[in-house]
Amino acid sequence: MVGIAGERLSALLCTRSTFSFGAGTATPTTLVRRAAELGYRSLALTDLLNVTGAVELFQAASEHGLQALIGATVPVQLDDRDVVPLVLLAASRAGYATLNELLTHAHASQTLVVPWSVLLAHTHDLVCLTGARDGLPARFLARRRVAELDRRIRELKGAFPERLYVQLFHDRLPWDGRRARVLRRFAQDVGLPVVAAPEVRHARASDQRLLDALTCARLGITVDEPHPQRPQNEAGALPSPDEAQRRLPFPEAHLNADWVAERAAFDLLPERLVPPRARVPTGLSPAEHLERRCYEALLQRYQGDRLAEARRKLEEELATIRALGLTDFFLVAAEVTDHCRRHGILAAGRGSAAASICCYLLGITRADPVEHDLLFERFLHTGKSAMPDVDIDVSSARRDELLAWVEERFGATTEAMVANKITYRLPLAIQDLGRALGIPPEQRALLTRALGRDYRHLSPQRAREAAPAFDEVLGDAPAKEALLDLLTRMEPRHTRHLAPHSGGVVLARDPLTHYSPLQRSSGGIKLLQLDKDDAEALGLIKLDLLGLRMLAALERAREEILRTQGQWLDLDALPDDPRVWDVIAAGATLGLFQIESPSQVNTARVMRSRTLKDLAHQIALIRPGPIQSGTVHPYLRRRQGLEPVRYWHPSLEPILAKSYGVLLFQEDVLRIAVHFAGMSWIEADRFRKRVSGFRDLADIEPDRQRFVAGAQRTQHASDAEANAVFDAIKAYQGYGFAESHAWAFALHAYASAWLRVHHPAPYLAAILTEEPGMWSPSTKRQEARAWGVPFLPIDLDRSGVHYRVERASDGRWAIRPPLTAVKHVSTELARAVMCERLEHGPYASVQQAMRRVVAPVDTWEALARAGAFDATTPRRDALYLARAAAAPPAPPGQEGLFEPPADVPAFAPLDDGERYVWDHAVARFSSLELHALDLVRDQLRELGAITLWQLRCAARKSRHRTAGLVVGRQRPGTAKGFAFFVLEDGPTRGQLIISPDLWEQHRVILRDASILIADVVVEDTGYQLSLRAERLFALPAPVDVRGYHYA
Amino acid sequence: MQPVMAPAEVRTRGDDVLDVRWTGPDGRSRTARIARLIDDWDYVGRWWTREVRRHYRLLEADDGRWLETYREDGRWWVSRANG
Question: Is B24 helix (H, G, I), strand (E, B) or coil?
Fold first, then answer.
């Protein structure tokens, strides 16, 4: 209960946060903290058209002892000309649902408004404030539309009986004092109470300029342009109660604010979501159906001793699922994967769900949890407070199709995706605020580029750390300091907008508006206004349908093999093949799932994986968690027998024996917490989350004490032993894999390697089309040379929409690149070219093609440059003809637009170097067996640079000068300032290690150079060619090549 | 009210303005004894170049004239006046 505090305002009823997207600068947490500091008792969050900040608000309010109220500012359409904002506060959970329905209505309209009639029909348990400056009374009184105002107010009174208040405000603008008095008198005249509700837009006065700049960015204007929505002063700051009293000296308005806060107070507690009803055969209950399916599959998949173990595990799981009321949820997840199987969509469960035998038997996951001893409790246990997620990887090419089916199957109001809160990083903040400050687009683009991988991941608040980039581009321009000042004022978690989550779908039996409004993303995807953490806090269960490009590639490769070789592969039953393991162990893994990065290539040679278990471990090793906790090297040395396997305590051997005594998986942390430190599964789950998410060492010291005491009690561990284990867990803080997840990924990785070995051309065509992984088409094209797969040219008469496999003239399977690989050529245009070809035969000439298919001239030019007409017309001639067609029509009686020009000048044919450059200019790769370095080879020889290929066989620790095209740049946060570049020369690649000193010395070269010449020391040879840079130069590249660039 | 934009000398007691003296466009000195404060407001702007921070007062003189004054960086100005 909120007590009546007297004349001082103790409740803020109209507050906007960053979730008003450009109309507020503070997060809900900051607003709550500031309100608590100033002595308020309640705070209502009333963001514009959304309740995205609701969960954060309630959590922060609980922490700071404040009463949270949730509402929203809702624009209401009165008629053709008038839209007025109303402030609606939920007075109960039912009122919250009503508000969500209204917001859903607003988001369904193009103009983001609620019609007046809809508002009047949705008022249950809502408190209505009439709005501030643009509100109904203030605006209509100013325009002397009194009769209309009276009518509207009467209707509102009827719709919100005893729940309608005239909102008083004062923004320290001209006549605001008089305006407040007039509104008060109006309220008396119509018999309504007044309420003091200053509009709060920022936490502190000094943030007005940030609000102003964000407002300009939202309105698409610069700061030099006036606009009524721009703040004129600092009155949008959260006022002290004394200041609020000075501005609005009406005691009853303050008392009413307290009264509203009291009646609108409720807790947004988590509720158990009821999953949608599963489809079950007539006469069976969902529980019976689940059991029947699981037991039938159990008998098919297990025999002998394993059957007994599997049966025990299944019985335990089914009991847990029944106890948590999740039977329908499991069946629904199975319905989704059943649908995928029936429709040929590759799909596989991953994550912690892969530890569930129930998921395995239902066909949701593919890794056998009994065989691999996976830990079900990581996924689900009866004490688990958060609901489980089931993550299902789906072929990215068909995910939209699957989502459409999910919506059709489960209903429009009971299915939606969770949102991602897209928070500002420096590049985005520079774009928005720089535009508001009038910084030209070219300069903003330069600045974004100058941030490079050193700074672009920073939150805006840390902008001054990127001062060198700002100095480089903006010099002494006055806008520089203004921009830096604004950026540093932004909160680290300032959300810019909502976007769809990569796959999280919430399914419920009842309308989801009970939890959140629904809106559509710009791409048309239906979203909740909750992110995954909010959803978890509210007790929602989500099914993650994640588009995985590698599954799309596997699917495409399988189809291509069927098309060309007539063989349909069962990707779930690929044979174990030593040749596949040889490729993986050699590190020849470019293009393979999860094991293609330079770090994985380096690990591969030491690991020499020969089993799926090895592969799961290899995938899990190169993650921030194991890297930061120093797991990688001990694991590899112990695996090779170079050092003995040691355990911090003998009791850990059963848990850590499989990983040679080190922490590798999330499950290891859980098992240690339970079996070593004596925690329950609930405690262990919470412990794992706390330890993996801590920011300040002091935050987890209580955990250390409990952990050490538990280990001493449970396993009689010494103080030193228990602390050593805790320290290892603490160091594992960063992201690590669940073992079940690693197994699921290992299966995909093996499938990709199997296809690469047995069907290299179809697999290459598939990964070029679907683009999984990190490497550019150009690098994959170079890799094709190593795989012995030739490339055919782009051809208007043969190329289509995707990379395809064709027999080359020498009988080998070759890759035919698609028309869509050419700049400007859309899928639709490529289809039009194909359809016309199918209907009327091959294209005889450039002119004929241009006559038969309608496309812009620059598209024809690009096709000509890419050699699409090579079969009929030399490239320069084709380009000339394409351009000639763009010339103005000839006068009547002369040649028509598409007639061949009388004379095509005699052009010299392109040499190979020119063809290579032209190819790259429009297609990012060339079918020629050349590399960019071949074009400057002579120059490199003069400089004394030897090739990467030669270095593969050089002696370790020998010094050389070499060169390479930069195709990968990485400077991971875990590498203590070291950067790792990948240099490429033909199909040979090498890793270049750059020290922090060298990085600082050559920051700009390293950011901009395409070809690097480097004096190096050879650290490793072969596929794992690794070079330590000692000196660097840049050489201009003849082509623009984009590789991967990670921070 | 007519635009004036002239520096002013102001005598105050606490927050209350007692009288205002300024030079009109005709070069003649003018004085107003203030009877009451009609309204006041704040303006904060142009922060992206040199911040402007003004507190405006709309005043009524004892002879019935209205004056709009503001204070910026410790200095007083008459921005508009009638009569």
Answer: coil
